[in-house]
Amino acid sequence: MKRVIIYLCLLALPILITSCYEDLGNYEYVDINEVGVTGIDSSYVAYQGENFKIEPDLAFTLDESGDLESYEYEWVLIKPFTTVKEILSNGKDLDVDLKVPPGEYDAYYRVLDKTSGVEFITDFKVEVKSAVYEGWIVMSDVGGEARLDMASLIDEEYMVIPDVLRYTGSSLELEGAPGLVYCYGYDPSLYGIYVTSEGTGTTKVDPESFDWSEDLRLSYEGISDFPEKMKADRIYQKRGSHAYMVSDHNIYYYYRSYQVSYGAPINKVTGETETFTASEYISAEPNSTGHSIFFDEDNKRFVRHLSLNNLESATMPNNATLFDYNIGMDLVYMTYTTYNNGEAFAILNDGATYHIAKMLQRNRNIRQVYFEEISVPGFEQAENFAIQPDYGYLFFNIGNKVYEYDVVTKTAIEMLDMADREITHMEFNSDSPVGSQLIVGVNDPSKPAGSTGSLEFYEVPSVNGQIVFNSKLEGFGKITGITFRRR
Fold first, then answer.
1. What is the pLDDT of residue 241?
2. 372 with 355: CB under 8 angstroms?
3. How far is C-alpha 12 from the geometric centre of its chain's CA atoms?
4. Is 204 helix (H, G, I), strand (E, B) or coil?
5. How far apart (Å, rounded) are the C-alpha atoms in residues 166 and 173?
6. Of the four, 109, 112, 351, 459, which is 20 to 30 A from 416 by CA?
7. Which residue range is the domain that position 62 belongs to?
8. In this structure, is residue 47 part of a structural domain?
9. Is residue 43 part of a domain?
């Protein structure tokens, strides 16, 4: 049988060869108009929300007119290992604001000759980076309404982005007066950027895209029946993904490692039945097991929170040497400072005079180390308090002047006079690259609305030396709060 098949195939072979031979020369070859594309690099780095522009040069082999209307164009991004494509433009040139998520993309530019139907494709790569990757996030007041701005750190330079939510295309719209802005890693795999306004309440935004969904609201982090638009007045981070949140004079505790969510208020002292009215100021010792200090506004006393206790607070240790912990004064300001390896710094008022109380605060050790009256003319008008972490100086402003107060010499030295500009915010930010620099939020009403605010940075020398201007960022609204978004 095999022999028959081979024989038949051999008989058919001459016929096939003859047919092919007779067909030689019957094809007609026609030159087509080829499109040559230059001016497109093999790869690009672009930023989300920023303008992305490519202007290729086109050359045609047969089309002497070079009529660009005779062609169709397409600029396309494709996420690797997918078939989903994003058409950026149908113009001859690419000139768009990138709205795609950060990532690496395959890309191509397609030119179609509408006369011949032949298309020519040029491939390239695009890496889209986030323009909101790292930097200062600024809460601004623009005409009484909250606006979120950002100074984004890109290639070691800051780019100021007014209204960063609109810039990124976020679905979050802040309503009403501005409130808290704060960043911290509330979970090892999640980073929290918290923003607050009067009408919106407190919510996180997506840390990569700044987009928003309902489940990012602060109320979703609690196990109690919190109102949907719950508003945090302050958030204080401790190490190990746990924190305090102050809302409407109540303090709530969060500790991820022990699966403790915001629940019942912890501003209640052991053995007492009622919660007390808590100050918004907490001296939060950063160690996960460290004791933090609260202030009871009802009984005008310091109390402490023993870490890991998600139910209540406790009285202060029985070691008063300089003042009674039941101090009987109003708390004006309190913070934790890294000065002297960790201290609580408090300013108090008895109705007539002001005092500074300092307590050494290291892990579970709390001990009084300083209690003195402040005697500075006009101190009742002082605001925007900040403690320099290296030297322990107290900074504050009275009107448009900034002062440095030395608790050792008990003297206040004028450091800045802003003249016709308003001081709206001051702090030292240990979570930023400039932890020891004084940061001053300044508002200049002579500038256009929405661009009146600036952040100014000053070096603070030792021995009461005059502070030295370092740098400035401009283009914000009236600054009411800042935080640094780290990577």
1. 78
2. yes
3. 78
4. strand
5. 9
6. 351
7. 35-129
8. yes
9. yes
